[in-house]
Design brief:
There is one protein chain. The protein is of the alpha/beta class. About 40% of the residues lie in helices and about 25% in strands. It is built from 6 helices and 11 strands. Helix 3 crosses helix 4.
Length: about 230
């Protein structure tokens, strides 16, 4: 198999008269893509043959989009110091006199003597464990619908993914982005069912779409909603 060439470097680009640092990823792709990552970083994914002036022209053509998304990312990061999105709801951090980190449906209780780093580490551990539990339950719920095709049940891998909510590997893994736990339950279900449908149809052709409609008749409406939440990728 031919190995894909790729290079990553940091560059500075001009966006509406302001110099902004961006991550440049060059590979043997054909399309040009922009993304503002969850960390608020501007990322450019471009073909290997792109020249410096091509890069700046691409950025200039989309500078309004970049400015809006970077501003929205800063707003989200500011809010994240006070609350997190959990199953589609904003759940605030609350200082607790108890020496225990506790997540409920309405609050995240944090020991009052903890700093932000301790809080974030505890939240990461909780988030990873609970996202795995929820994803496994959804796969359990839906698996009888797919095992009739005589396929092996995929092994769940929970990951932080930069550009996808989920993916299905031909090596037998269903990869789900732990950030899904921030979405409403029906959108998490959409992603799980989407990936399971790839066990039958590995592309997004007519067969895949028909199977999605059998499983989730309103999947197109859900898909529009989740695409709006993925608006930081152009």
């Amino acid at each position: 198999m031919k190995q894909r060439k790729s290079y990553r470097q940091e560059i500075w680009v001009d966006v509406a008269g302001e110099s902004i640092k961006a991550a440049l990823l060059l590979s043997d792709r054909r399309s040009m893509r922009l993304q503002v990552t969850p960390d608020g970083e501007l990322e450019l994914r471009l073909p290997l043959q792109c020249r410096e002036r091509d890069i700046q022209s691409f950025v200039t053509a989309h500078q309004q989009w970049i400015t809006e998304r970077l501003s929205a990312s800063k707003d989200r990061q500011a809010r994240s110091s006070k609350a997190v999105l959990l199953l589609g709801r904003e759940v605030p951090f609350v200082a607790s006199a108890l020496n225990e980190f506790l997540v409920t449906d309405t609050h995240i209780w944090v020991p009052e003597n903890w700093d932000d780093e301790q809080r974030d580490r505890a939240l990461e551990r909780w988030w990873r464990g609970h996202s795995r539990d929820r994803f496994e339950r959804l796969i359990d719920q839906w698996w009888p619908r797919f095992e009739v095709y005589g396929v092996a049940r995929p092994t769940l891998r929970v990951k932080r993914m930069r550009t996808r909510w989920g993916s299905l590997s031909k090596r037998g893994y269903i990869n789900l982005n732990m950030s899904l736990l921030s979405l409403s339950e029906d959108l998490i279900e959409l992603v799980v069912v989407h990936e399971l449908c790839h066990l039958r149809h590995f592309d997004h052709g007519a067969g895949f779409r028909a199977l999605m409609s059998e499983c989730l008749p309103d999947w197109r409406q859900r898909d529009k909603r989740i695409n709006l939440l993925s608006a930081d990728v152009l």
